[in-house]
Amino acid sequence: SRAAARQSLPPGAGAPGGPLHALTQEDIVEMIFFPVVNEACRCLAEKVVVRAGDLDVAAVLGMGFPPFRGGIVHWADQIGAARIAGRLREWSTRYGGLYQPCPYLEDCAVQGRRLADGPAAGPDRSKL
Question: From CA 113, how far away is CA 91, in angstroms rounded?
Fold first, then answer.
């Protein structure tokens, strides 16, 4: 039973920061994929990849992201940087630094820019 499982956990091993919260299917999808979007933004900002489309193809072919969504960055742009950054900030406060939005994602959220547009300045070359 759930109660027995909770009793067998060491102190503090429950939900970080407090009681367990009921999660919707949307919450679960966001908690899995918004950190992936955050890492994709880091890759763009650090010039690990040249184009967001490269990350989209890698997500579809490499991790099985649903092709009908267009890839991780395309999907994120449909949701909006402001929503993603806001949810990540909320979770970062509740659960810790894993969810802290990167500066590029925050900039896109504040400026209303698409993630796929990439960083504003710099050469169009990958670090790799």
Answer: 22
